[in-house]
Amino acid sequence: MRILAIAVAGLGLTAGSLRAQMNDPTKVVADAGVKMAGWTGRVDPQAAKQGKKISDDKLVSMGTGFHVTSGPAAVYWNPKNTASGNYTVTGSFTQTKAPMHPEAYGLFIGGKSLETPNESYAYFLVRGDGKYLINHRANDSTVHKIVDWTANAAVKPADASGKASNNLSIVVGPSKVSFLANGVEVNSLPRAQLDGMGQGTTGIAGVRVNHNLDVHVDGFSVTPAK
């Protein structure tokens, strides 16, 4: 049991969340694949160890934005969205269907070596129970937990049908990085804290969508500070 507990802790899971995932197998997405020009993606290392591939997820252009239907959790990006200096990344996310238990979606910044075992990025996620998370993935086996799941009134929870819409932004300034949900700063970190994690805030920006979600993204943009 102690070995199991260590393994669960290493994955950043509670025993309850592990049981939930065991009862919520990764779904098979119809007509899957990353089908938006210029974009690619990568499933989480844990999903890759189970034989899952980015071709098991679906990313397509839709309306003025794009739509993700996920089996395995993954990050998605276009290399053109590489940012440095002071900038803002933003996107409006709509969870369109209820998952079996709260699952997360959001933004990432500072992406480097994303297709290698040394992948690195910082991410800001929200989920249907009105909580947010800030973490940094340092490589395939290491995740730095910065802010664990925390409730905040600015994060809109899912309604009775499982739908929720949240506009998310990461604002990288000269001395701090702000994390906003629906225009409200829910947390901030010294920029030096992220820069000190080895990869920093310079790099590719994109989106992350976790396990078994159906999420529409509008208005995704990376804007340099004026």
For the biggest sheet, the summary is: 8 strands, mixed
Structural class: mainly beta
SSE order, one letter for each helix or strand = HHEEHEEEEEEEEEEEHEE
CATH topology: Jelly Rolls
- Please, what is the average pLDDT? 89
Q: What Rg is obtained from the alpha carbons, in whole angstroms? A: 16 Å
Helix content: 10-25%
Uncertain regions spanning at least 5 consecutive residues: 1-21
Describe it for me?
This protein has 226 residues and is mostly beta strands. The chain has a single domain, classed as Jelly Rolls, CATH 2.60.120. The protein is built from 4 helices and 15 strands. The strands form 2 sheets. It has an 8-stranded mixed sheet. Strands 2-5-14-7-8-9-10 form a 7-stranded antiparallel sheet.
Which helices and strands appear, and what pairs or packs with what?
Elements: H1 2-10, H2 15-22, E1 33-34, E2 40-43, H3 45-49, E3 58-62, E4 65-69, E5 74-83, E6 87-95, E7 104-112, E8 120-127, E9 131-139, E10 142-151, E11 164-172, E12 176-181, E13 184-190, H4 191-195, E14 203-209, E15 214-224
Parallel strand pairs: 1-3
Antiparallel strand pairs: 2-5, 3-4, 4-15, 5-14, 6-11, 6-15, 7-8, 7-14, 8-9, 9-10, 11-12, 12-13
